[in-house]
Amino acid sequence: MVLVVNMHVSIKISKENYERLCFLSGKLREELHKPISINDAISFLYKRRKLSDLAGGWKMSDRETKSFIEDVRKGWRGWKIKSA
């Protein structure tokens, strides 16, 4: 299956992935209440990132790690739950 992305570029994807993109486009169209192209669906997939995607991306020494963890713990200790 060949998917034409724009007038200048085409990419080859499997029928299964094409169907997945069409399904995602439909789901996004339902959620956002507007037309969604397959290109929009690909952009959505690219932008949707998880925190775990960043694992290993931040280089710091053991000392910096310890300081960071201490600061986070200190911040959580100062956090108070406010009820309505």
Protein model, in words:
With 84 residues, this protein is mainly α. The protein has a domain at 1-49. Helices cover 52% and strands 7% of the residues. The chain has a two-stranded antiparallel ribbon with strand order 1-2. It is built from three helices and two strands; from the N terminus they run E-E-H-H-H. The chain is elongated and about 55 Å long. Helix 1 packs across helix 2 (38-47). The model has no long low-confidence stretch (mean pLDDT 81).
Strand order of the largest sheet: 1-2
Tell me the major beta sheet.
2 strands, antiparallel
Number of strands: 2
**Radius of gyration over all CA atoms, rounded:** 21 Å
Our count of helices gives 3
Q: Give the proportion of residues in helices.
A: 40-55%
The CA-CA distance between the termini, in Å, is: 55 Å
Listing every helix as H and every strand as E from the N terminus to the C terminus, the arrangement reads: EEHHH
Strand content: 5-15%
Helix/strand class: mainly alpha
**Which word captures the global form?**
elongated
Unreliable stretches: none
- Quote the average pLDDT: 81
List the keywords.
84 residues; mainly alpha; 3 helices; 2 strands; 7% strand; elongated
Structural topology:
Elements: E1 2-4, E2 10-12, H1 15-32, H2 38-47, H3 62-77
Antiparallel strand pairs: 1-2
Short characterization:
By secondary structure, this protein is mainly alpha-helical.
